[in-house]
Amino acid sequence: MTDQPRRRLVLASQSPARLGLLRQAGLDPEVIVSGVDEDAVTAPTPADLALALAEAKASVVAAKPEVRGALVIGCDSVLDLDGQALGKPADAEEATARWKAMRSRTGTLQTGHCVYDTNSGRYASATASTVVRFGEPTDEEIAAYVASGEPLHVAGAFTLDGRSAPFIDGIDGDHGNVIGISLPLVRRLLARLGVGITELWTPREN
Predict the structure, then answer these.
(1) How far, CA to CA in Å, does 129 sit from each of 33, 49, 51, 87, 206?
(2) Which residues are known to be catalytic?
């Protein structure tokens, strides 16, 4: 009996955090950026917006001839604060205002996930939600964090695994979802398409 060849996996995101989490979980996706104009996508709620963006990114990459036969994962994250969808801040001024608005409060990090099987043309999608409890950084700490440049590159202007970690008091839900991708949700979406996540593991080196 011969083993089935491992399915090719493509990540439709340029996020190094998402790629890192997938690799830590034994997967080795290629990265192909979708080029979707995020500003052109609208939805009634932050959770719906995150899902719509993930589906758009996955479907655009899945349509490329060079990914035929692959499984494509698309993701997008927004922070839901008072019903407003907050992505990456446009500049340092916006990042500073964002952090002053978030401190001592809670928000919900919404990450849309879409797994597209280019063999069957089927896809499965869902949004994962994690409540984030922000701490009380001082104005000086916020200024230093914004000056580091980190918040300009991440949804919600914060990360759990970077310089803002000391300013996050805690979360309720999947920490990977806040970093960029919920691995348990990816597993469930793959299963809906008839793919076991262990089938995609890379061989361990001796």
Answers:
(1) 24, 13, 11, 15, 38
(2) 76
